[in-house]
Amino acid sequence: MTDPIVLAEGLNKSFGDTRALRGLDLGVPEGTICGVLGPNGAGKTTAVRILATLSAPDAGHARVAGYDVVRQAGRVRERIGLAGQFAAVDEKLTGRANLRMFGRLCHLPRREAHRRADDLLERFGLADAADRRVAGYSGGMRRRLDLITCLIQRPDVLFLDEPTTGLDPRSRTEIWDAVRALVADGTTVLLTTQYLDEADRLADDIAVVDHGRVIATGAPDELKAAIGDSLDVVLEDPGALRPAASVLHGLAGTDPTMTGADRLSVPLPGGAFRLADVVRELDRAGVVAADVRLRRPTLDEVFLRLTDSLAAPFADSEESVR
Amino acid sequence: MTTATPTPTAGRLRRPVGDGLVLVAREVARLKAEPGQIVAALIFPVVMVVLFGYVFGSAIQVPGGGDYREYLMPGLFAMVTFTAVQGVMTRTAADASQGVTDRIRSMPTARLAVPFGQTGADSLIGLPLLAIMVVTGLLVGWQPHRGAISTAEAFLLIVLLRYALGWVGVYLGLVVKDEQTAAQLVPLFLPVTMLSNAFVPTDGMPAWLRFVADWNPVSAITAAARDLFGNPGVRSAHPAWPMEHPVAAVLICSVALLIVFVPLSARTHARRGR
Questions:
Q1: In this structure, which CATH number among 3.40.50.620, 1.20.1060.10, 3.30.70.100, 3.60.120.10 belongs to the domain A227-316?
Q2: Which segments of chain A have a pLDDT < 70?
Q3: Does A5 reach chain B within 8 Å, measured CB to CB?
Q4: Do B29 and A97 touch (CB under 8 A)?
Q5: Which 3 state secondary structure label does DSSP give A161?
């Protein structure tokens, strides 16, 4: 394998006093899906805009498909597709007319643009709606059209900025299927998201971004393994939360998180103790547990742990007890 | 690592022109998709002719004699010409706020194609508007009196100015970037066209207002059209320079607008922002 097809090194970008990116590094191997995960304002969109040649970094550099995004922007544009946070299509035109137009703007010959538009509409289930105006499309259909518009020139790299934000679960699944189909064709995808399950289900690798920097990278399972398993405890009596939290704190060394009115969750450093120890300790404190379970952490927990360790102390988190 | 899509090695200019034509075709297709909008756009000048010609015309005496509707028509041509600014501004801002502009910026589309497409499309849309105004004007008793060449010159001036104004619209749209803000700016254009000799002679205005009105490009195109059509329009004793040389004033104004706003809009469109 050669260099990553998307490579960003030390990207910095400020807007006035706001430092959107502070030395962001990123590498995406060809033919993979990279999920850039982060809260609102973490700098995800800014990074995508720089990689897609819409914005220039103040410092640092980036290469996409072998070309520098600043000095060889024209070359980069011939090889990428970008879907932003809105469905950026012309509402007054039909789906087919949109695809043909954007195909022509990518310098496809007329016949090729038409053929490609028909193929994509067929393949992504929009053939029936192709000759209706986009204004009458559902949110999911619009996003799908937006997505396939990026494919019109067969990009090597596809940038998807929060492709499913605001979509209902079913439309979201449709977009996910479409993205998977693309990667099967060999397209490299970089997608930003604030939905952890989206990154979990789609991405080969995840880059967690916070405050303009990548704070962790790895496959979803690696990230989960890195913070160890979680212990979930469901109580018979919600009134026993405090003593139970105290017991868990004693065992794990960190404050547990309240995950419901009667349940607590605490991350466990790898193999710290056995389930039997937990039950015994709870029993000794007079707490009756309805359920005690060891569990792989969700990406949500990974994310919160990673971002919290850099931000305020855990105790400030609104859901922590004790 | 990557296989480049074959890129035709055509002349440097083929790209911007070809891309621009694709965008012109887009605007035309949009209009076709909304026949109601075409009808509304075409009715507007007709309503103007009837409203001003008969409502105002019933009370206004053209100093120096002549029919008010003959006097009015060049002013209405000017007014409709200036609607190019708001039209192009609104469409450009809509594209910017809906992300279409960014999408095109991330494509290999020629940088100049977008503003050229927008202004070109507007000029094309302007032609049927002009035609319907001519027909309406003829119906209410207006007509050109100075022969085919002068008449053609007048229309060419109108088309040229409209094209130049389209570039102002592109720039404003790119700066405003937001459809709603653009829509809020539109009502401000009416006073600008009213503050001219389009509907009434400027002689009676207070000195400062008359100064503004005489130097307003709306007045220049109105005066030029009156001259070239041979329509009534009074020359006051001490006219401002643009009123004495309205054709030259329109030409200078159009060229100046193009010199300023073509590069400015092109740069603003190509600039990498946020």
A1: 3.30.70.100
A2: 1-2, 269-273, 299, 308-322
A3: yes
A4: yes
A5: strand
